[in-house]
Design brief:
Oligomer: homodimer
CATH architecture of the largest domain in chain A: 3-Layer(aba) Sandwich
CATH superfamily of the largest domain in chain A: MoaB/Mog-like domain
């Protein structure tokens, strides 16, 4: 009953956006924060480096004492101390003095440059230098990386390995992040069985969506729990009802078409509100979404490829943004390797193999052909106002890699 | 002592490649195989779909019985059965017959097409059709995705969500993959302390490498365990010796320069063999690698940015290929936004922010400036034979995202 009039893609996406939820925050050890999203600004407690630091192994000295030194005209200085990483020298470097210094060690008072060990020779406390340095050379000045009190990262930043280091240097051993959403994935379908090497009896089909959609949820930073239920209204209703009390988001596969066995949207209608059912896209037209007990439910097709595309188009952004991470399709342009027909009034997400220059669509692309997703590394997206492209036209491409958490 | 003559980057990479190890394999539940690497070919036990399957909700019938049907000239057929997903019909579709069929259900004998429900009306067992279909229309033929006995995925394939679905459909509930390497990360440095909000005493510095390098190891599919030891030969030797007995790979940070406190390479020399120490790259020149107890050891700098770059240049490929996953830097071309000087005889990995068209290098890029890695999303790579580039030149860029597992 719901599919008779299709929503446009933009209308459907807006309905999801209007119902976007944000997770609560939690404080976790920094150690566990890799690939989480900051729920606070990071304001540094320290300067980094905390002092003028040597960037080389060599000798701390006054730069002017090195001027004009060369291989043919070496100069001589007196070594008065040695300083390693983790120690301060209590000596002050005066005229004609030098202090042996290690990479990372604090530059002693009075010195304004470090001459690399490679350009020197030593004999007892006598240092012979064969090269000159300018003031500041080979010194990482105090606070050059981070100034105490500076906001070094903003709320909503995704924590890559680089940010891990910056947060540590700012003095945080715990960090406030957005919680991961708990997603309930409900697989519907009497015909579905677990993978087996045995011959399939009756009209059974192996449940592949369980594996693909679970993995896609993981690839969106979220946690997932799976149930498999039959097609009856009662079974599906019980599963969705229970999930709506315990989980942050519900996803289903199967039962979204319009035959009598397709009860999923009837259940959504019964338990809550349908936002839309049926969107002018290909593949994946029978996608639905709704709100039950204030939780978003996405109802994906049973067809494996349709379900994957629907997840990419509708659910990824929702899961990312629940965790405070901005998400937009990262669209780039490529030349069409082949002519691609399309239909006005429908947005196509065409599986493709793209490289630095070209996008070539996968020819065999029924919505049940998982192999077409395996051969692909990208979508070609054809807008509802376009009737397709000629070979050589510049077309919109989204790489699968750019969709991952 | 080791740094006096620098290896070229290619020579150093070849030494690592010559010592590449491959992990053993293990059989794991398919459920856990996402983002692992296949250690066997996947040969399908099944056809998929296992029978001619309806791709739509509608009516299974003989296509020729629909020819010339239209809105103005409807035709009438007799409904003789109904078939849902998971069931076979025991009726045969004859002349003038139709069977109600759900998406995913097996097409009954005698039928050669499915007419979508949208183009029909029904009254009791009388079906009125307003559109025609061609033979095969709306049917996913048996084995169109996968043929029983076909090799659908090859050994060494990285298992994305798509491959998860394909492996399931092929009938595998367990799968043979390469084991994850266990990496021991040994942080050296008396001066390093854990992140703290308290003022740092003496010449202490916060240990950020622990967080960045650990996260990079995780981003390479491997497992990691961390120790922090002081700079003494004995401490470093004990830690590396023990690690070489228990772990698959060893990584260290700090102690790779040439001052007296830099003992890491001396330990490698003592316990095993140094492959190289000192490579003509920037940042990261003091990188070393060696073999101890038949295990690879990478000795990274203590400087945070140098350590990250060294990991990307030397260790990622090693960890990927230990797990059977091919890895090459994914180099693309961008226009230089600014002029970039470089030095002959040295390969530069310059932190940059790149978009679809341009690469702009980060100006403040001392090897201790973690912020430069945070502002960057890519490396500009300048070959040892290039003296730099002018604004507008096409240059080699590697996006950080392309390096991840």
């Amino acid at each position: 009953m719901f599919l008779s009039k299709l929503d446009s893609l933009n209308d459907a996406l807006k309905l999801i956006d209007d119902n976007q939820k944000l997770m609560d925050t939690e404080e976790i050890p920094l150690d566990k924060a890799h690939k989480r999203v900051l729920a606070e600004d990071i304001i540094s407690y320290h300067n980094s480096p905390p002092f003028d630091k040597s960037a080389m192994d060599g000798f701390a000295l006054k730069a002017e004492n090195t001027f004009n030194a060369s291989q043919s005209q070496p100069k001589t200085l007196k070594i008065i101390d040695m300083v390693g990483a983790g120690c301060f020298s209590d000596k002050s470097v005066g005229e004609g003095h030098a202090v042996i210094i290690a990479t990372g060690a604090p530059v002693p008072d009075g010195a304004d440059a470090v001459l690399m060990k490679e350009y020197t020779t030593t004999k007892d406390d006598e240092l012979t230098i064969y090269s000159q340095v300018t003031p500041g050379e080979n010194i990482s000045p105090k606070a050059e990386d981070i100034k105490k009190g500076d906001t070094v990262l903003s709320k909503n930043t995704f924590i890559r390995y680089q940010e891990m280091g910056l947060i540590a240097s700012a003095g945080y051993d715990t960090v406030k992040v957005f919680k991961k959403p708990n997603v309930k994935l409900i697989i519907t379908g009497n015909e579905l069985v677990e993978p087996t090497k045995d011959e399939l009896s009756d009209a059974k089909i192996i449940n592949s969506n369980k594996f693909t959609i679970k993995s896609m949820i993981e690839d969106s930073g979220a946690c997932v729990s799976i149930s498999h239920v039959g097609d009856s209204f009662k079974e599906v209703r019980n599963a969705i009802h229970d999930a709506s009390e315990e989980y942050d988001v519900i996803m289903t596969t199967g039962g979204t078409a319009i035959s009598d066995g397709d009860v999923v949207l009837d259940v959504v209608d019964d338990l809550g509100e349908i936002l839309f059912h049926g969107v002018a896209i290909r593949p994946g037209k029978p996608i639905g979404a709704g709100i039950i007990n204030d939780k978003m439910i996405f109802t994906f097709s049973g067809q494996p490829v349709a379900a994957m595309s629907q997840f990419d188009i509708f659910a990824r952004k929702y899961l990312f943004e629940m965790q405070g991470r901005k998400f937009d399709l990262s669209v780039t342009k490529r030349q069409a390797k082949l002519k691609i027909p399309s239909q006005l009034g429908r947005t196509d997400f065409i599986r493709a193999f793209s490289d630095d220059d070209y996008a070539r669509h996968i020819l065999n692309r029924g919505s049940g052909i998982i192999r077409s997703m395996v051969e692909a590394n990208s979508y070609i997206i054809i807008d509802e106002n376009d009737e397709g492209y000629q070979k050589g036209d510049l077309i919109n491409v989204v790489f699968f890699n750019s969709l991952l958490w």
